[in-house]
Amino acid sequence: MGSLYVKLLGACHQALCAVFAALGSVGRGPTRAGTGQRDSWKGWDALELSGRSPATTRERLLFPEHSVDVVGEYSAAVVPWPMKAAAVQAMLPRELELGPQSLTPSGQHPVLWVFGRQRSVRPNFLKVRGMRYSEFIVAIPYVQWVSTVNAYRGPFTFLPRLYLDHPFPVILGILFGLAKRWCRFRQDDHSDDLSSLFGISSIVRGRFTPHGPVLTPTQFPLFAGMRPAFEQPLIDKPVLGPLLGAYFDWELDRAWMQALDAEVEIQQAFLPGLAKEGYEVKGIDQVPLGAFCFLVPWTVTLPFLPSALRTQVV
Predict the structure, then answer these.
(1) In the beta sheet, which residues pair with residue 138?
(2) Which of 34, 14, 11 is nearest to 22 (CA)?
(3) Is residue 55 very low, low, confident or very high in pLDDT (cuts 50, 70, 90)?
(4) What is the pTM of this model?
(5) SS3 204
(6) Buried b / exposed e across 191-203, counting CB within 10 Å, b at 16+?
(7) CATH for 2-45+55-311, among 1.20.1250.20, 2.40.400.10, 3.30.750.24, 3.40.50.261?
(8) Boundaries of every domain in the chain
């Protein structure tokens, strides 16, 4: 029964994604909420994404096969935040728990705050310009099943909240089981400010100061410790139904990256365990859990039952 549900969900997502991508390509659909959207970082317009990324996690795990993926490009600031483990655990559904990791000391767990701009989002079979929208992501890597009965227990990455400025990808995300919400964005070269859709109250703010050269991720030695956090399958909790999985392939070998100093201010406690507070972090060129901006192509599979994952014997 669960497998049939996921197949129907995937078919609906595939059809709607094709329609929304086509509408976005010809400039139809609702106007994005907010002002001052940033398509890329200052001086990055001439950068090209070329070549193919070698498969990583997808080769080490046996994923359900799909002929259709969703593809796109993301220009974003990534701010790692070592938070209290109890607060992060409160953001997880009861089926999941924090898993082992070496990025933060005992009693803490890393959370990724990602402020960015999506472009060219479309099904891989549809050769159109695709959708463009702003997207803020809260990502918790290194989570695992509480139960030990599944062949693959973890690690997964869980996304407790995503904010976007366009309703089309919000609808698609909900079909994926993602906790997407529609809000307003105000962006410039050095900041993102998210506010409620029908009000002026701020939700979260990010301030960024890029510095140093634009390089590939492998040219930042301190990024090596954080990279596995970008190579874990997703697991998410829909409003109804079982937990859903997907493989989000950050094609990091095709990406460009720059270090930045960042400051995040939580203006609303929009998740369990969150408090109104601020955090500052230095760049990835200075500290292992440092902030950076990147331009990266990505591919994501249609949803599947994460209990179907199997570890591949090498």
Answers:
(1) 113, 161
(2) 14
(3) very low
(4) 0.86
(5) strand
(6) bbbbbbeeeeebb
(7) 2.40.400.10
(8) 2-45+55-311
